[in-house]
Amino acid sequence: QVQLVESGGGLVQAGGSLRLSCAASGSRFSIYDMAWYRQAPGNQRELVAFIFSGGNTGYADSVKGRFTISRDNAKNTVYLQMNSLRPEDTAVYYCAAAPPGKRYDYWGQGTQVTVSS
Fold first, then answer.
1. How far is C-alpha 66 from the chain's CA centre?
2. pLDDT in tens, 78-101
């Protein structure tokens, strides 16, 4: 089992940057696939980016070229670097973990990102 704690959210002006962090407790962090999701008021939760245990990454079309997901297995941490932020990026951002071959069953509490125009 793994516990996830996000940090790094806040208020930023459009065009600015933020880096989110997700610290994982528990052992064997390196075998988990990790992802960032977000949920804006009135919207469904959507996948933003993922990084597999082997390092492959993927992004939602809306964030490609602006966001970068990475992981540091030595620190049990996954990051989301967000550049060129837009007001439509405003949401609660959640970190999620999936054991090998399974769904994203582990979730953090979320961190608020607000982008002002």
1. 13
2. 999 999 999 999 999 999 999 988
